[in-house]
């Protein structure tokens, strides 16, 4: 009987698919150990196995060299020491890259969004490319992998399942942890946000799971944030 309860729970969660206040921003522990009874764990582990198996199928293409006159404008250097300039330049470039991918993937979603139908299937990157599109969980992989390929570390970039309590919708996004306690959200379809924003700026959405092709975490509310909410009666 217990296994049927788990299957029913997973069915309810995964059937939600992708979606098209004056509250105090919640604080989260994004990297808590997953609960063994978590209904998402089986789904995540199954995708991880397939994603790693498909990894060798992707053929990289060398981009064309920019034509003279199309180079990026010069970057204005930050004042201060060489250390200040280095870290400021690096941070500016990484944010520019992340925003560029956020804009690009939403443009592609207009042409390559393909709904799963009654059965929710998490595609691998290779399946998404081979099928010329997918829904949010497939399109999101393009950003997740691209940022990793561009040098963002495995400790910075994760896939994430988010939830909107107001209508019960679930969605897949990329989280970039420039700051450990308040990541940037890169939304593949614009259902959550049409621009790159921090998670704290979207209190109507709740992060549930953070994972990569080899790790999985459950997101939990910080006790301090819960206490503040209780004290204010919100």
Give a verbal description of the structure.
- By secondary structure, this protein is α+β, with helices and mostly antiparallel strands.
- The chain has one domain: C8orf32 fold, CATH 3.10.620.
- 38% of the residues lie in helices and 16% in strands.
- A seven-stranded antiparallel beta sheet has the order 1-7-6-2-3-4-5.
- Strand 2 and strand 3 form a beta hairpin.
- The N terminus is likely disordered.
Can you lay out the helices and strands and say which pair or pack?
Layout: H1 2-14, E1 28-32, H2 41-54, H3 82-112, H4 125-130, H5 136-149, E2 157-164, E3 169-176, E4 184-186, E5 197-198, E6 206-211, E7 216-221, H6 223-232
Antiparallel strand pairs: 1-7, 2-3, 2-6, 3-4, 4-5, 6-7
Helix pairs in contact: 3-5
The 3D shape can be described as globular
* Strand line-up across the major sheet: 1-7-6-2-3-4-5
Order of helices and strands: HEHHHHEEEEEEH
Number of domains: 1
Q: Give the C-level CATH assignment.
A: Alpha Beta
Rg measurement, Å:
19 Å
Average pLDDT level:
81
The fraction of residues assigned to DSSP E strands is 15-25%
Largest β sheet strand count, sense and barrel closure: 7 strands, antiparallel
CATH topology: C8orf32 fold
- Helix content, binned percent: 25-40%
Structural class: alpha+beta
Total beta strands: 7
How many H/I helical runs?
6
């Amino acid at each position: 009987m217990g296994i049927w309860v788990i299957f029913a729970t997973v069915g309810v969660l995964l059937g939600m698919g992708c979606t098209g206040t004056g509250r105090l921003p919640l604080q989260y522990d994004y990297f808590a150990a997953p609960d063994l009874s978590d209904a998402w764990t089986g789904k995540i582990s199954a995708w991880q196995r397939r994603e790693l198996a498909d990894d060798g199928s992707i053929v990289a293409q060398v981009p064309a060299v920019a034509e003279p006159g199309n180079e990026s404008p010069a970057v204005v250097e930050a004042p201060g020491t060489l250390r200040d300039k280095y870290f400021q330049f690096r941070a500016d470039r990484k944010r520019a890259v992340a925003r560029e991918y956020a804009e690009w993937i939403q443009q592609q979603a207009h042409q390559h969004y393909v709904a799963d139908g009654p059965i929710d299937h998490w595609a691998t990157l290779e399946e998404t490319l081979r099928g010329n599109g997918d829904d949010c969980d497939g399109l999101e992989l393009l950003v997740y992998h691209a940022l990793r390929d561009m040098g963002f570390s495995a400790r910075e970039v994760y896939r994430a399942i988010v939830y909107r309590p107001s209508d019960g919708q679930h969605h897949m996004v990329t989280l970039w942890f420039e700051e450990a306690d308040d990541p940037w959200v890169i939304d593949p379809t614009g259902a959550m946000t049409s621009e790159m924003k921090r998670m704290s700026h979207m209190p109507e959405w709740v992060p549930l799971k953070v994972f990569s092709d080899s790790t999985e975490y459950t997101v939990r509310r910080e006790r301090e944030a819960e206490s503040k909410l209780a004290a204010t009666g919100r």
